[in-house]
Amino acid sequence: MRHRKSAKNVDDKDKIESPNASDREKVTTSSSNPKFSSRRVFVICMAMRMANSLLVQTYFNPDEHWQALEVAHRIAFGYGHLTWEWEKGIRSYLHPMMFSCLYKVLALFHLDTPLFMIKAPRMLQSMFSAVGDLYLYKLSHVLFGGHAAQWALFSQLTNWFMFYCFTRTLSNSLETVLTLVGLYHWPCIRASSSEVHSVSRKWGLLLAALACAIRPTSAITWAYVGILELLVTRDRLNFIFLEVAPIGFLVITLTCLLDRLMYGSWVLVPLNFLKFNFLSSGGDYYGTHKWHWYFSQGFPVMLFTFLPFSIAGIITSKQWKLSGLIAWVLGLYSVLGHKEFRFVLPVLPIALMFSGYSLATIGKPDSSFGRTKDSVRIKTKCPSKKLLAVLFLLATNLPMAFYMSLVHQRGAEDVMYYLSKEALNGKVESIVFLTPCHALPYYSTLHHNLPMQFLDCSPSEEKGVLDESDRFMMDPVGFAAEFAKNWSLPSHIVLFDSQEKLLKDFLTSHSFQEERRFFHAHFKVDRDLQASVVIYSLKGQ
Question: Phi-psi bin for 110: left (phi > 0), alpha (psi -120 to 50), beta?
Answer without folding.
Answer: left
